[in-house]
Specification:
- The chain is an alpha/beta fold and about 425 residues long.
- The chain has twelve helices and 13 strands.
- The chain folds into two domains: about 160 residues, Alpha-Beta Complex (Aspartate Aminotransferase, domain 1), CATH 3.90.1150; about 240 residues, Aspartate Aminotransferase, domain 2 (3-Layer(aba) Sandwich).
- The longest helix is centred in the C-terminal third of the chain and has 23 residues.
Length: about 425
């Protein structure tokens, strides 16, 4: 029996944080999104594919900061480029610096949908900008959405504090359900500014899905038919599924797309890219500005990240290792006899437990992730993980073996 980890310092800091921060920390990082009492609440440091908590426990980091860590933590080449910018140039000025143009040219060369681009900071910034651009370009209001697109008023799932007028013209459809999208467009198509969809499906707390044949193509055709803008939300899939995005991997080019997370390996940067005629509404018709959007540090980090990716064929390495990992874990799950599934391979592995009337799946899930964290594998029970370049074959073999051990412990509840 693997013992519970020592988490005294985490618990102390968490208790202190309750007096300082609402909920102690924001949203998805709160303990109820893990296994309360079993997972650490504060990290101290990270390097490569591992993180260390404030009690000195070191974990293989399979959550990767919810996606930004595409290469590894504290990647020297990237951090040194940022340090040089700080020391030699500076980064927060009244005007933009030349790295803006260099990065834009880089994205033009890599991303099929990128004719022009705008740089912002977060995924929510990017998706909201894209929707605003689509509304400005089409002169229409309604938006059809599929997937998690951030915390802003038009798309956040928790509606507290938000007037319904901000989301009453937004309609959801299910991933891979082209018929549902078609019916929605029959009802709202003439008034629809945008269809926004994650090209890889990652619905909250559910299995990761890949597009069925014809789904993305069908969405593109419906957008064309009704004069709407097709937006791909590639915040998670961009620069991970393929260096040109899932759009390049699957061969479907949208009108606009948004990128973030892996673009700068942990530095705060996202981008809205798309067709020139659509993006040009940002010249005058649609307003976009922020004190910190033009800051050079994150753009420098992105340039260094892209350099590293291309030179080391990062996406190919991740795909190869991820496929081997997924094959091994799938076999472990099948042989375990525990009713659970692996999805998201090779990029976003997620182990989910099949729902049953007696809700045994909840107990199995809690026990499995309890055993996994005790074995120093950091994953989240309700969110898919990620594979990073610095996850070595040895690391991934260890994770697979610990998954097998954790399933054996969970199976005792059946």
């Amino acid at each position: 029996m693997t013992e519970k980890l020592t988490l005294a310092n985490s618990e102390k800091l968490y208790k202190e944080a309750w007096e300082l921060i609402p909920g102690a920390m924001m949203g998805i990082r709160r303990p109820y999104n893990f296994v309360p009492g079993e997972y650490p609440t504060f990290f101290d440091s990270a390097k490569g594919g591992k993180v260390t908590d404030v009690d000195g426990n070191e974990y293989i980091d399979m959550l990767c900061a919810y996606g930004p860590i595409i290469i590894g933590h504290r990647e020297r080449e990237i951090d040194n480029a940022v340090i040089r910018q700080i020391k030699d140039k500076g980064f927060c000025m009244s005007l933009v610096q030349p790295v803006q143009n260099a990065l834009a040219k880089r994205l033009q060369a890599l991303v099929p949908s990128c004719e022009k681009c705008a740089f912002v900071k977060t995924g929510s910034d990017a998706t909201t900008t894209a929707v605003r651009v689509a509304r400005g370009f089409t002169g229409k209001l309604k938006v059809l959405r599929c997937g998690y697109h951030g915390w802003h008023d038009w798309c956040v799932e928790v509606k507290g504090g938000i007037d319904k007028k901000f989301y009453e013209d937004v309609y959801e459809f299910e991933y891979n359900n082209l018929e549902q999208l078609r019916e929605l467009m029959k009802q709202h198509g003439p008034e629809t500014a945008a269809i926004i969809v994650t090209p890889v499906g990652h619905p909250l707390a559910h299995e990761v899905q890949m597009p069925n044949p014809g789904f993305l193509e069908g969405a593109k055709e419906l957008a064309r038919q009704y004069g709407a803008v097709l937006i791909f939300d590639e915040i998670r899939s961009g620069f991970r599924v393929n260096i040109g995005g899932a759009q390049k991997e699957f061969g479907v080019t949208p009108d606009l797309s948004v990128f973030g997370k892996a673009l700068a390996n942990g530095y705060a940067l996202s981008a809205v890219v798309g067709k020139t005629e659509i993006m040009n509404v940002l010249e005058q018709k649609v307003f976009l500005s922020s004190t910190f959007f033009p800051n050079a540090l994150d753009m420098v980090a992105a340039m260094a990240t892209l350099d590293f990716m291309e030179r080391n064929k990062v996406q190919d390495v991740i795909k190869e290792r991820g496929n081997k990992f997924a094959k091994k874990v799938s076999k472990i799950l099948e042989e375990s006899g525990v009713p659970c599934d692996l999805s998201g391979g090779p990029w976003m592995p997620f182990i989910t437990f099949r729902k049953d009337d007696k809700q045994l799946y909840k107990k199995l899930r809690t026990e499995f992730y309890t055993q996994l964290i005790r074995r120093k594998v950091f994953l989240q029970p309700y969110h898919h993980g990620y594979i990073a370049y610095r996850h070595s074959p040895k690391d991934l073999t260890y994770v697979a073996n610990m998954i097998a051990e954790s399933l054996e412990e969970a199976k005792k509840l059946m």
